[in-house]
Amino acid sequence: MALHRLLGIDIGVPEPEVLDDFYQEIGFVGGPRKWGPEGMPNQIVIEEAPYRQLLEMRVACESEADLHAITKNLDALGLHSSLKDGRLRIKDPVNKWDVVVEPHEVSDVPEQPARLMNRPGHRERIGARPGVMTEPVQRPPRRLGHVVIGTSDILATHALYVKGLGFKISDIVGGLGFFTRCSSDHHNFLMTPGPVPYLNHYAIEHDDIDAVMAAASRYSRAHEGVQIAGPGRHMIGGNVFWYLRDPSGTFFEQFADMDQIVDDAAWEIREDWPMDDSWSLWGEKDQPEVFFRPDDMDAVIEGFHKQHG
Ligand SMILES: [Fe+2]
Fold this sequence. Notes:
Blueprint: E1 3-13, H1 16-25, E2 29-30, E3 34-36, E4 44-48, E5 53-61, H2 64-76, E6 82-84, E7 87-91, E8 98-103, E9 118-119, E10 122-123, H3 131-134, E11 143-151, H4 154-165, E12 168-173, E13 177-181, E14 189-193, E15 198-205, H5 209-222, E16 227-233, E17 240-245, E18 251-256, E19 270-273, H6 297-308
Parallel strand pairs: 1-4, 5-8, 11-14, 12-19, 15-18
Antiparallel strand pairs: 1-5, 2-3, 3-4, 6-7, 7-8, 9-10, 11-15, 12-13, 13-14, 16-17, 17-18
Helix pairs in contact: 2-4
């Protein structure tokens, strides 16, 4: 595929310094204002902004030829983009954030040693206590995996990202929630209808279920009122999840074990997900109401209208 990786995002918040402390606490490196896992310290860039919002999303393509092909697709949609210094940039006309596409070599995050597990009839952790208990340091988050946004014009957003930029649809829920990918992950970018464009959540991948549970437990035990949803395992995307709230009010998901799609033709896009029964295979049955109506939604709506008219 032309697109092959989610490189990073810029987030705007009124108080950037609270996120510096936060990203350090959850195990990202870098800073100030630029954070990520080891080896990718610019995956999340923080800037000051009047209300919390997504400012930019960066995606990798394979070659310069891809940039020209994307420009052509955007032109056909009547969307203006600019090509400068080997990067394509477009201001999303509906959602107001920038999308940047740039060529990068195709690569994956380094493989981590799998922890030994026992299953009926298959014992591999013999005479040893669990890795999550015995490993000398907690396993850190490995990368930014996906971004979920709300938008006031889902069809225009779908056109820009799918027809224009080349994100591929993995699944559709309710006819209006588009799970799309720019890598082998089931989703890197999920668009959903919303009252105004806003950042619903970003998700950080961990090595395994233990790492998700340990990281989310650690954070939620240390901070009151951060629980949003989970733990559970999504039906759509298949990932184990646990959603918490970061200090700026944006939800962040810790996840592991997402569906991988490497053969596009062999993947069957499902559109028949029941709206009221597709949240989680175990754990809480229903998505909490706060999920698409965060506590600061009114401030985000007001902030959007003030800044963008
Ligand atoms: Fe997610």
